[in-house]
């Protein structure tokens, strides 16, 4: 018991000493705060109170949509636009007025400008056309060249086996004066000569119906000798029959074929081939023509053709654009004629005007 009493007394003394030390430390801290520490809390409060001057706080408020109660509401986009217009109404009215004046000036200048005339295709120097195309009557798609009330032209069709069977009496009754009938053709690859499947029927029936007739041959000759062969083939098929219209030479490149026979011909070669064909035809007592459109005929040397007539193909034009003397104008490829079920080429014979 005496030992326990001594220990308890020691513990009480140690606790009293510790309490005394703590009290001394607290008194020293309070004294230090009273002496100079009062401003530091004020600095902290001041540093964190400046919401508007701290960019981080401002960024946070914009991103979060937050706003101080004392901050006025921001105007909407519509309000901003209206206010802008009100503030700048005089300037906006001035700009709109200037734009309107410029537009009105452009309209006025265009209205007063002289009418532009279409550019005509230049003719060969020194060439004077024998035709006055103001005399061309195109009523109902049936072209006619009329001078002083008299029709100087003739209306015709050209046909092949593509039109199939034709009622030639109905064709004649529909006002058709002549027909140019395909007699035959040369194959575009192998070069064999063929008679058109409907030639004999068309030739005999058209003549019987009272139409004037001519023929054409679709050539694929690549030499002058082949051209003469084609011409002799035509003469043989005609068997001495009289023609009121010429025999036409028609050479075209068959563009659908990679190995088309005539694709590599030069202009000089093609001109000599056409001349050889026509020479042979004329030697048998028939007249001749050279057929083609603008693309085809640009491959010919007209001097080498020795003044032969041209059967010109140009569809749906008010007048031919070709500058040489045209004997026959194929003016449409979709004609409708009684007695012919399919569309047919329409032709205007102008040879009487030339003569």
Alpha-beta content class: alpha/beta
Task: Give the distance, in angstroms, between the N- and C-terminal Cα atoms.
Answer: 167 Å
The tally of beta strands, per DSSP, is 12
| Largest sheet descriptor | 8 strands, mixed, barrel
- Specify the overall morphology: elongated
Q: Provide the helix percentage.
A: 40-55%
Strand content: 15-25%
Q: Which strand order does the major sheet show?
A: 4-5-7-8-9-10-11-12
Which regions have little confidence, pLDDT < 50, spanning 5+ residues?
Answer: 2-11, 36-72, 114-124
The helix tally amounts to 11
Task: Tell me the Rg in angstroms.
Answer: 52 Å
Look at the structure and give the mean pLDDT: 79
What would you note in describing this structure?
41% of the residues lie in helices and 18% in strands. The chain has 355 residues and is of the alpha/beta class. It has an eight-stranded mixed beta barrel. The N terminus is likely disordered.
Main traits of this protein?
18% strand; 355 residues; 11 helices; 12 strands; three-stranded antiparallel beta sheet; single chain; alpha/beta
Short description:
By secondary structure, the protein is an alpha/beta fold. It is built from eleven helices and twelve strands.
List the helices and strands and how they pair.
Layout: H1 2-36, H2 39-49, H3 55-64, H4 77-87, H5 89-112, E1 136-137, E2 144-147, E3 150-151, E4 154-159, H6 168-173, E5 178-186, E6 193-195, H7 199-208, E7 212-219, H8 224-238, E8 247-251, H9 267-283, E9 288-292, H10 294-297, E10 309-313, E11 326-335, E12 344-349, H11 351-354
Parallel strand pairs: 4-5, 5-7, 7-8, 8-9, 9-10, 10-11
Antiparallel strand pairs: 1-2, 2-3, 4-12, 5-6, 11-12
Helix pairs in contact: 8-9
